[in-house]
């Protein structure tokens, strides 16, 4: 029996070493350690031995069993590691072949700028307010203190509709609508489409986009306007950008101003884009005219406010160096694809 | 901290309702954690005396008692006015005054009835505190003081009914850790007077009875004040019932009169005390006089606590020692050796102030937290030491028949200087939002124990002397002027001296907080909530819609709002269609820009043709924009989202092959977006648009209105827009979503979390042939409706037509997912369900499994 056991162990060693995959290992394990294994058979035959030899031989069988178990475990590990290694990338893989990208599309650059402006205003505590594109004379002109004979009311400047109404020439109309319905304090930014009877050319478009900000509260001053403007510009164009306002005229603000930012192309040194002035015109601004407040029923003795408007096309063209406004309305995929990464 | 209302009512008139008190405390900043009513007991529970108590034969714990119930009328009372009761309490013995509950008494947890125990009749029950709902002590029957009269109702003895409030005191308010503190806050909140207990001490005794004591304070940093009063002829005994019941209701166990008195004062005044057995105090080496030495422990010095535990000290702890060893861990716990015992006849009563940090360290290090350490580590004032000591002295003389020695030891080298603080009514208005006048400020702060000094000029911080803030207001006030006009250089300020127990009041802002709290935070004027100008929901949903189509590969286009009416005719619309009722410009630049658009589709098709002409094969474009409709001469602006897609689903890749865009891509764009927005329950019908091929698209209808559609561009229309579909070799798909209406549909949809299943799901597959006329949707709905609680999902994984499949039929293969939220599904149950699915399919559509 002792011989039988030795043979068994030797055979097991051979069989175990021959295992090349996990399946083989499982089979060998069943064969040598399972219920019906030869090793168990030897246990059953212990009775045939004389009483005094039984414990020693029993121990021997157990030792053999432990040895086989260890060998099987070691082989199982070896087989598994071999399998892992074989699954690692082969040496013939060309890592430089094109990767798989998602199918993500993108936003229009004007939407990208508008979204960015919205987010800046929202982060500064403003609400986004929108209004209709089709307006009436009251909201587009009268309420904004524009005299009846003002040139901007001409057919050459404003689109009028058959049967009455017009297409708004600026989003200031939303100011009026909000002030009609809501009491101060008011902090809004109103983005949207505007229309002017300009022929499309590199710097004009009959349809364009604007954002207008309006703040009405007790104690709002021109200083708040300049501070807000420089805060907005630093978020939008970077901390180093300078801002200034210059006296100007708009019917609905008093005092009125033009806003400039330091040229984002040359940094103020002067270049072709800024016509060598170092400054870029950003839009109109000013303190809300008391007449505008009276029209919407806000007491100008209690409340003051400022407003400023920005052209989205202008910002997009400056920021992305787009030379011609008409490109923005062609919807050419070769243009649109360039803004895939900006579509945040 | 547990506060019993009957006790609290001794110091202040309480509001009549418990709810009102709850509200008052809550809004004074004292959190009420629980309210436990202690209802009145029936009149059939009263005091009685055990005349005899004999062991019941064959029982190891039962006693047969004769209990004297005095004049109480009970039919089975014997000639000695006694009833017979079997009692199992370990402390049952003859002579004891007890509380008896007569048969018929309904107690909180059960009702007493006449009973036979071991064949002996028992007429009622002798009660424990727990059985009466007074406390959770179930250690034995109540032992009343032996001088109690028989027949006194339990309600009278225990002051019932009562209510116990469990209060959470914030760590900044140590002054609230006692009944008087709570009463003081309520007095300010309610504007009712506070009644302090009247302390009357007996006349000091003659010097013959003086007990000598040597008091040595070696660490005045950690113990700024230490007082000791001595008493002789002390009789240690039980406390009277009123005192016991006070402690019980506040959650403390009565021990003996002396310990109970110190606990009572701790609860009442919020200042812990300690009593030492005078005779156990060893003198200092080579001296005769018993000593108290306040010092830090020696390293490795042993301290044995009241409860016989041994602690090894490391030298940081402040101890109250006698001449030899520690008698107490200062402010934390007393020691065993000098503890009060039945044999004690003379005592030292300690009342002291300790440095809070040191107490906290000792308590933390040795893991001992006591009612005393809890209070000291929150910082108790040096000034409350005296009141607590006097109150205890009075009670010791009264309740322990003690004689007080005339010498009071008081080690207090450098009393802290009371703080003077100013408060500006204007500043209050600035911080809280409304003006509070000086009278009201004086009223509130006065009730809290602050003493008003004078009006003055504002000076920041704590001020040393009231002279520093002199201004004419003070002078005017002395002359009786009550209305003040402010001078330009003077800021109207009220100056108060802060009582020492309010260690938390250090700055003006602390006073402002107190005033706001007492006046109620709701006294601050509510501003009208500004209505929202922005429609945030609409804004976010529109962003979500465009973000989604961008994520699916579409590029955004922006087109002019005005267009050419001829384009709509090109799309196949007739003059009568609403889409042809367009708003016309009076002064257009050209006919191509002469009307306002009623659809985004024509311009998208122009964009498509433009890009195809520039060599693009895969074009996916969308626009989110306004369309302008004429509704009975009214202008309506409606935001739409339209998209056109053609080509393959993504860029060509050498390994991962792109899939041609088809019906299910277009359908997916609409349906996934609706699903993401939570819009379900649309009905669908075949799309019907003049520019779409019939039969290859759906209209999605909700409340009789089309909210979306998709379909395949018909070849003639494509050609009209300059797109040759034959040349292109691919279909063009259009989708349209009515953005404004979709925004409204999901405005009030709220996602609700569903619990994650705790049991595994099981999936079974079925394959079968169906007629082309049978819709998959109907099959899916049919299966789901069989048992919606178990059938979690049905999905297709294969459709096949062709060889071996008869004409007009197809083969469908589906997964059915079973999920039970309550338990693991058995094979048997699933087999049964699958069987019912098969039967249903067969009966409804004559479908046979493959
Ligand atoms: Zn420049």
Helices, strands, pairings?
The complex is a heterodimer of chains A (344) and B (850).
Chain A (H helix, E strand, L loop, with lengths): L1 H17 L3 H12 L4 H7 L9 H34 L21 H15 L3 E2 L5 E2 L1 H6 L23 E2 L4 H10 L4 E10 L11 E11 L4 H16 L5 E8 L2 E10 L16 E10 L1 H6 L8 E8 H9 L12 H4 L8
Parallel strand pairs in A: 1-4
Antiparallel strand pairs in A: 2-3, 4-5, 5-9, 6-7, 7-8, 8-9
Helix pairs in contact in A: 1-2, 1-4, 2-4, 5-10
Chain B lengths: L1 E3 H4 L9 H10 L3 E8 L6 E11 L7 E6 L13 E6 L9 E5 L13 E3 L2 E3 L2 E2 L2 H4 L21 H5 L3 E7 L10 H12 L23 E4 L7 E8 L8 H9 L7 H13 L4 E4 L13 E6 L5 E3 L5 E3 L5 E4 L4 E4 L3 E2 L12 E7 L2 H10 L5 H6 L7 H16 L3 E9 L8 E4 L1 H8 L5 H10 L3 E7 L14 H7 L13 E6 L10 H12 L16 H16 L3 E2 L5 E2 L1 H6 L24 E2 L4 H13 L5 E13 L2 E13 L16 H14 L6 E4 L11 E5 L2 E8 L2 H6 L4 H4 L3 E6 L1 H7 L16 E10 L4 H9 L6 E10 L8 E10 L8 H19 L5
Parallel strand pairs in B: 11-14, 25-28
Antiparallel strand pairs in B: 1-10, 2-10, 3-4, 3-6, 4-5, 6-9, 7-8, 12-20, 12-21, 13-20, 14-17, 15-16, 17-18, 18-19, 22-24, 23-24, 26-27, 28-29, 29-33, 30-31, 31-32, 32-33, 34-36, 35-36
Zinc ion binds next to loops of chain A.
User: Which blocks of ≥5 consecutive residues of chain A have pLDDT under 50?
Assistant: none
Strand tally of chain A? 9
Total number of strands of chain B:
36
What helical percentage do the residues of chain B reach? Answer: 25-40%
Distance between the termini of chain B: 75 Å
Structural class of chain B: alpha+beta
Name the shape of chain A in a single word: rod-shaped
Number of domains of chain A: 2
Q: What name does CATH use for the topology of the largest domain in chain B?
A: BirA Bifunctional Protein, domain 2
Task: Output the radius of gyration of chain A.
Answer: 41 Å
Question: Helix- and strand-based class of chain A?
Answer: alpha+beta
Greatest chain-chain contact: A-B, 49 and 51 residues
How many discrete structural domains of chain B? Answer: 6
Characterization of the model:
The complex is a heterodimer of chains A (344) and B (850). By secondary structure, chain A is an alpha+beta fold. Chain A folds into two domains: 2-83; 109-133 and 168-339, BirA Bifunctional Protein, domain 2 (2-Layer Sandwich), CATH 3.30.930.10. Chain A has eleven helices and nine strands. In chain A, strands 1-4-5-9-8-7-6 form a seven-stranded mixed sheet, sandwiched between helices. Chain A has a two-stranded antiparallel ribbon with strand order 2-3. In chain A, α2 (22-33) packs antiparallel against α4 and α5 (109-123) crosses α10. Chain A is rod-shaped, with a radius of gyration of 41 Å. In chain A, 36% of the residues are buried. Classes of the chains: A alpha+beta (344), B alpha+beta (850). The complex binds zinc ion. Zinc ion binds at residues 263, 265-266, 270-271, 273-274 of chain A. Residues 263, 265-266, 270-271, 273-274 of chain A line the site of zinc ion.
């Amino acid at each position: 029996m002792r011989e039988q056991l030795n043979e068994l162990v030797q055979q097991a060693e051979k069989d175990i070493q021959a295992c090349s995959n996990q399946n083989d290992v499982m089979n060998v394990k069943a064969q040598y350690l399972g219920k019906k294994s030869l090793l168990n058979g030897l246990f059953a035959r212990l009775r045939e031995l004389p009483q005094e030899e039984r414990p020693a031989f029993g121990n021997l069988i157990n030792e053999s069993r432990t040895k086989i178990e260890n060998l099987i475990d070691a082989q199982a590990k070896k087989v598994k590691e071999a399998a892992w290694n074989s699954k690692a990338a082969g040496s013939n893989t060309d890592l430089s072949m094109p990767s798989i990208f998602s199918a993500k599309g993108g936003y229009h650059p004007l939407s990208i700028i508008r979204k960015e402006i919205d987010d800046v205003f929202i982060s500064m505590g403003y609400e986004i307010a929108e209004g209709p594109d089709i307006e009436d004379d009251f909201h587009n002109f009268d309420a904004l203190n524009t005299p009846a004979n003002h040139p901007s009311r001409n057919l050459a400047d404003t689109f009028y509709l058959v049967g009455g109404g017009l297409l708004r020439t600026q989003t200031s109309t939303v100011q009026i609508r909000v002030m009609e319905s809501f009491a101060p304090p008011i902090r809004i930014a109103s983005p949207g489409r505007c229309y002017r009877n300009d022929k499309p050319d590199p710097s004009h478009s009959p349809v364009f986009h604007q954002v207008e900000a309006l703040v009405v509260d007790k104690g709002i001053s021109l200083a708040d306007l300049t501070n807000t403007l420089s805060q907005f510009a630093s978020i939008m164009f970077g901390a180093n950008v300078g801002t200034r306002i210059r006296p100007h005229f708009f019917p609905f603000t008093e005092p009125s101003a033009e806003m400039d930012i330091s040229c984002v192309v040359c940094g103020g040194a002067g270049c072709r884009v800024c016509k060598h002035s170092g400054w870029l015109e950003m839009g109109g601004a000013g303190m809300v005219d008391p007449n505008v407040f009276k029209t919407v029923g806000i007491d100008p003795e209690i409340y003051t406010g400022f407003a400023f408007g920005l052209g989205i096309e202008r910002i997009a063209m400056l920021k992305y160096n787009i030379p011609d406004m008409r490109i923005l309305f062609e919807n050419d995929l070769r243009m649109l694809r360039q803004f895939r990464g900006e579509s945040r | 901290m547990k506060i019993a209302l009957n006790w609290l009512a001794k110091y202040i008139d309480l509001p009549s309702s418990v709810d009102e008190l709850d509200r008052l405390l809550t809004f004074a900043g004292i959190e009420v954690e629980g309210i436990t009513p202690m209802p009145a007991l029936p009149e059939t529970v009263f005091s009685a005396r055990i005349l005899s108590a004999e062991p019941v034969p064959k029982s190891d714990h039962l006693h047969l008692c004769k209990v004297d119930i005095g004049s109480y009328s009970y039919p089975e009372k014997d000639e000695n006015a006694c009833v017979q009761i079997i009692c199992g309490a370990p402390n049952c013995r003859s002579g004891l005054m007890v509380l008896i509950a007569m048969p018929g008494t309904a107690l909180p947890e059960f009702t007493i009835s006449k009973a036979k125990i071991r064949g002996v009749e028992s007429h009622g029950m002798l009660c424990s505190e727990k059985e009466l709902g007074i406390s959770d002590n179930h250690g034995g029957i109540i032992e009343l003081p032996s001088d109690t009269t028989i027949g006194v109702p339990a309600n009278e003895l225990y002051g019932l009914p009562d209510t116990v409030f469990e209060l959470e005191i914030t760590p900044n308010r140590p002054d609230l850790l006692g009944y008087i503190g709570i009463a003081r806050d309520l007095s300010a909140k309610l504007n009712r007077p506070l009644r302090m207990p009247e302390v009357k001490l007996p006349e000091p005794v003659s010097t013959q009875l003086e007990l000598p004591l040597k008091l040595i304070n070696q660490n005045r940093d950690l113990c700024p004040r230490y007082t000791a009063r001595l008493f002789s002829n002390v009789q240690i005994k039980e406390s009277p019932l009123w005192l016991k019941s006070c402690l019980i209701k506040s959650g403390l166990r009565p021990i003996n009169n002396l310990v109970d008195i110190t606990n009572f004062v701790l609860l009442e005044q919020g200042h812990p005390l300690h009593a030492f057995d005078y005779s156990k105090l060893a003198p200092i080496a080579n001296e005769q006089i018993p000593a108290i030495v306040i010092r830090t422990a020696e390293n490795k010095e042993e301290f044995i606590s009241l409860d016989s535990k041994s602690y090894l000290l490391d030298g940081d702890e402040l101890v109250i020692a006698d001449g030899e060893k520690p008698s107490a861990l200062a402010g934390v716990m007393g020691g065993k050796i000098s503890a009060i015992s039945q044999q004690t006849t003379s005592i030292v009563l300690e009342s002291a102030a300790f440095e809070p940090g040191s107490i906290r360290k000792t308590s933390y290090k040795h893991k001992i937290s006591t009612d005393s350490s809890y209070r000291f580590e929150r910082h108790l004032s040096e000034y409350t030491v005296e009141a607590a000591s006097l109150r205890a002295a009075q009670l010791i003389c009264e309740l322990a028949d003690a004689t007080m020695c005339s010498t009071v030891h008081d080690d207090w080298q450098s009393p802290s200087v009371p703080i003077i603080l100013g408060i500006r009514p204007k500043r209050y208005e600035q911080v809280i939002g409304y003006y509070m006048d000086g009278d009201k400020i004086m009223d509130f702060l006065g009730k809290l124990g602050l003493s008003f000094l004078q009006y003055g000029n504002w000076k920041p911080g704590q001020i040393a002397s009231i002279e520093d803030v002199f201004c004419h207001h003070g002078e005017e006030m002395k002359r009786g002027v009550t209305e003040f006009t402010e001078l330009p250089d003077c800021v109207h300020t009220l100056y108060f001296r802060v009582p020492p127990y309010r260690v938390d009041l250090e700055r003006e802002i602390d006073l402002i907080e107190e005033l706001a709290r007492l006046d109620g935070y709701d006294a601050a004027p509510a501003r009208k909530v500004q209505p929202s100008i922005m429609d945030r929901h609409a804004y976010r949903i529109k962003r979500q819609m465009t973000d989604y189509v961008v994520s699916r590969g579409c590029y955004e286009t922006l087109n002019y709002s005005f267009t050419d009416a001829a384009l709509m005719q090109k799309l196949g619309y007739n003059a009568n269609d609403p889409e042809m009722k367009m708003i016309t410009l009076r002064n257009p630049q050209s006919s191509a820009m002469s009307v306002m658009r009623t659809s985004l589709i024509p311009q998208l098709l122009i964009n498509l043709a433009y890009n195809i002409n520039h060599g693009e094969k895969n074009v996916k474009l969308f626009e989110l924009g306004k369309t302008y409709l004429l509704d009975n001469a009214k202008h309506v602006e409606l935001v739409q989202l339209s998209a056109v897609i053609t080509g393959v689903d993504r860029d060509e890749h050498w390994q991962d092959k792109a899939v041609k865009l088809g019906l299910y891509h277009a359908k997916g764009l609409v349906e996934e977006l609706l699903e993401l927005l939570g819009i379900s329950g649309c009905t669908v019908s075949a799309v019907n648009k003049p520019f779409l091929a019939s039969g290859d698209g759906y209209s999605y209808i909700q409340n009789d209105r089309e909210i979306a559609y998709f379909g395949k561009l018909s070849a003639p229309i494509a050609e009209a827009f300059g797109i040759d579909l034959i040349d292109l070799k691919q279909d063009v798909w259009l989708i349209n979503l009515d953005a404004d209406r979709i925004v409204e549909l999901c405005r009030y949809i709220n996602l609700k979390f569903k619990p994650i299943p705790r049991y595994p799901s099981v999936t079974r597959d079925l394959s079968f042939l169906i007629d082309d006329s049978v819709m998959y949707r109907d099959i899916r709905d049919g299966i789901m409706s069989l048992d919606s609680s178990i059938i979690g999902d049905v999905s297709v994984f294969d459709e096949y037509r062709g060889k071996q499949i008869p004409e007009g039929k197809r083969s469908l293969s589906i997964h059915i997912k079973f999920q039970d939220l309550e338990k693991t599904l058995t094979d048997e149950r699933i087999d049964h369900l699958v069987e019912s699915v098969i039967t249903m399919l067969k009966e409804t559509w004559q479908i046979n499994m493959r």
